[in-house]
Specification:
Shape: globular
Strand order of the largest sheet: 8-10-7-11-9-12-13
Number of strands: 28
Largest sheet: 7 strands, mixed
Number of helices: 30
Length: 767
């Protein structure tokens, strides 16, 4: 008898040995949670049951600290918001009807902690995991995006993390043949020991192809297929992703999952053929919590129970215990429910794609999840208690004691804020701003990604949104943008979250797409800190209220807590992914002016106030205080409608939203996009808005965009703005002859000088 069999902790053994010590704390459970598990079972758990509960009741899987607040996303919706929503929160990913029988599914998730411990594999498996969520809905993945946040650009460890993460994202996504169409790259010291690696995937399908994850039909087979199960990622969900880092506890750093993108590429094609031939009744990807998650969620979502023989799992490591097999987060695995009648066809497809599989068990009518090992029952639970009825905490939260002082510390009243560049110094200020780590060119990152594979990419970085064609015949497509402003959220989490939402909405609209759905990735510090919990509660409230005002539903997302080391939390970082629908992607609007637009009028939509608190200019000067810019969501909705209609009707040739860096950054970006200059006059609009030229250039007031308008369209453009009561001002012309951003009467910035500064920052630090 092997040592594994000799030490097997069966359900019968658990009943007769109630006082056996179990490592519940080492597995990330609290004492009260361990006691609750015993009450649910009416006995102590077996080692395998303890493993299952520990991962499924973890913060990462159960959302035990956040779900009381996340309910707002389901409560603050109208029938109008839900009219195109085909699958909402609670499934692997939300699904939205985009017309003509097409549906799109998209979701964003985090893989933060693993990406600090092992940057390459952490980032790579983050991409792999989110892609499998999309596959499991019945969709073909068509694109990925990656919002990334790193520590200070000049910190020695940032080199390690940046090189690993960027290579991991590119290596996995490129190998899958998926275009990377956008994201973000931000550097800030608050992310030094807690980088954020958020990954988004989008997939397309016909309406009839939608699949939901459940195990129904007594006698149907439960099958695990894909890669073999190994020891990688054990404890990832329960420990690594659900507690703060603490260097004194090496147990906080278990093995990170190891990805194989080529195995996943085969898995994609294999799953799509299973769906096409209607071979599977339900399917579930194996990500966080592995087999524990797949079995308990499939059984819980079904109408019966499940019986599984764990010894049938194909292993890479024969020394794994049953508990380790249940907890392993080995990648590139899926679980399917198949009728006996479809088994022959299932096996044919597996053989065709050379994918390994094993029949683990059956769907039953017992209402129980029963798992055996060598004929002995090691798990006997109600699957709902594992997958859905975990603990719910109403964590105490309160406004931080220093919040009032932070908000009173206005940039305009600081030493840096009182000394504002003027005249010719404004040209130097623009160059300095565009060379800063967060506004500089991200080509060093994005050039490592394939943006055009599959041939359906219509826009990608550095444009405001990524645009992908869905239907080649009609040109129907979707636009996606991801945005967050953690500095705004630090100053006021409610307003900051709304600002992130508004920016994502604007970015999709400037591309010419009608915003229709949101997925969010909420990255915060420890929920056990009342200050952090207040930030989280306020940010969720801001997003839920904001989505109501904009009429765009949240379709799903992810919460990542415990992004905190040694008591130091990251700035609250609610990343918003916005999806928009475009009737014809050939009409998409780029974010810069081309040489063919020489002589086009440049218009500024919206008004500017002295709103420099939390701005990129303030960051450049080492200041974080005051209140973030005010967000008027009714105006944002109006601006979005106008931009979409202007694009659709051919009134504008280019459009760029104003956000980080204000008007200065937008004008610089628009010139650098295709290397075409502009002549800009600031005097009249500065006088209209009662601000000086520095404020007009660097303030980050919301609800603004810059448009390039052909001379033949100026009358229609102005008529639309006037009819809707939206402020506008003609501030200049596109100048393809003069290679400069010419602020007339003030200063001129040669594009060559601007490009050298803008493009040189990341290569300087990362080679």
């Amino acid at each position: 008898m092997s040592e594994q069999q000799f030490n097997l902790d069966t359900v019968d053994h658990a009943r007769t040995t109630p006082d056996t010590d179990l490592p519940w704390a080492e597995l990330g459970l609290k004492e009260n949670e361990f006691e609750d598990i015993k009450k649910i079972l009416g006995r102590r758990p077996t080692a395998a049951e303890l493993a299952m509960y520990s991962v499924m009741w973890s913060e990462h899987c159960s959302y035990k600290s956040s779900k009381v607040h996340l309910k707002q996303f389901g409560a603050k919706v109208t029938d109008e918001m839900k009219k195109d929503l085909m699958v909402g929160i609670g499934e692997n990913a939300g699904v939205t009807d985009i017309g003509n029988g097409w549906a799109v599914t998209f979701k964003i998730e985090s893989h933060n902690h693993p990406s600090y411990v092992e940057p390459y594999q952490g980032a790579a498996t983050g991409v792999g995991g989110i892609v499998r969520d999309i596959i499991s809905m019945g969709a073909r993945p068509v694109a990925v995006m990656d919002p990334l946040r790193f520590g200070a650009i000049d910190h020695p460890d940032t080199q390690r993390v940046v090189h690993g993460v960027v290579a991991g994202v590119g290596g996995y996504g490129n190998s899958l043949g998926l275009p990377n169409i956008g994201g973000e790259v931000e550097f800030d010291a608050c992310y030094q020991a807690n980088p954020l690696v958020n990954a988004l995937a989008v997939g397309v399908m016909r309406h009839e192809d939608i699949r939901l994850a459940n195990a129904s039909g007594v006698g149907n087979k439960v099958i695990l297929f894909g890669a073999r199960t190994g020891g990688d990622g054990i404890g990832g969900a329960s420990v690594l992703a659900s507690e703060s880092f603490d260097d004194a506890k090496p147990s906080k750093r278990p093995a990170v999952q190891v990805g194989d993108p080529f195995a996943e590429k085969v898995l994609i094609e294999c799953c799509l053929e299973l769906f096409k031939d209607s071979v599977v009744e339900g399917i579930q990807d194996l990500g966080a919590a592995g087999i524990s998650c797949a079995t308990s969620e499939l059984a819980s979502n079904g109408d019966g129970g499940m019986h599984v023989d764990l010894t049938k799992v194909l292993l890479r490591d024969s020394t794994l215990t049953p508990g380790e097999i249940l907890m392993s987060e080995s990648q590139e695995r899926m679980m399917a429910v198949v009728t006996p009648a479809n088994m022959a066809r299932f096996e044919e497809i597996m053989d065709k794609w050379d994918v390994e599989y094993s029949v683990l068990g059956d769907v039953t009518d017992s209402g129980r999840l029963v798992i055996e090992w060598d004929g002995e029952v090691i798990v006997d639970v109600d699957p709902k208690t594992v997958a859905h009825d975990g603990p719910t905490y109403e964590r105490p939260y309160s406004r931080p004691a220093g919040q009032d002082a932070t908000q009173a510390d206005r940039f305009s009243e600081s030493e840096a804020g009182r000394h504002r560049p003027a005249g010719a110094d404004l040209a130097h200020a623009i160059v300095e701003l565009m060379a800063s780590p967060n506004l500089c060119s991200k080509e060093w990152v994005t050039d490592q990604y394939d943006r055009y594979v599959q041939g359906n990419t219509a826009l990608s970085q550095p444009d405001d949104a990524g645009v992908v064609r869905v239907d080649e015949e009609t040109g129907l497509g979707v636009a996606l943008a991801t945005d967050a402003n953690p500095r705004y959220a630090y100053l006021d989490p409610y307003e900051g979250a709304k600002a992130s939402l508004a920016e994502a909405y604007r970015n999709v609209a400037t591309a010419g797409a009608r915003p229709v759905a949101v997925s969010d990735c909420l990255n915060f510090g420890s929920p056990e800190d009342p200050d952090v919990m207040w930030q989280f509660a306020e940010a969720v409230r801001g997003l839920a209220d904001g989505c109501m005002k904009l009429g765009v539903p949240v379709t799903g997302g992810n919460v990542s807590l415990y992004n905190q080391t040694g008591g130091q939390a990251i700035n609250p970082t609610p990343v918003v992914a916005m999806m928009g629908v475009m009737d014809d992607v050939t009409r998409r609007t780029p974010s810069g002016w081309a040489p063919t637009e020489d002589g086009n009028a440049i218009y500024l939509l919206g008004t500017t106030a002295d709103e420099l608190d939390g701005s990129e200019w303030a960051r450049l000067k080492g200041h974080l205080g005051g209140r973030p810019p005010r967000v008027d969501l009714a105006q944002e909705k109006l601006l979005g409608d106008m931009l979409v209609n202007m694009s659709r009707d051919g009134m504008i040739d280019a459009a760029h939203d104003l956000s980080q860096g204000g008007l200065a950054a937008t004008l610089a970006d628009a010139c650098l996009r295709f290397g075409v200059g502009a002549r800009i006059g600031l005097g009249e609009v500065a006088e209209r808005d009662d601000v000086d030229e520095f404020t007009l250039l660097f303030s980050e007031s919301q609800g603004r965009a810059v448009c390039s308008v052909p001379r033949t369209e100026e009358v229609r453009f102005k008529d639309m703005c006037t009819a809707r009561g939206y402020a506008f001002a003609r501030i200049g012309v596109v100048d393809a002859v003069n290679d400069a951003l010419d602020l007339q009467g003030i200063a001129s910035v040669p594009l060559a000088e601007l490009r050298e500064a803008w493009s040189g920052t990341l290569p300087k630090y990362f080679g």
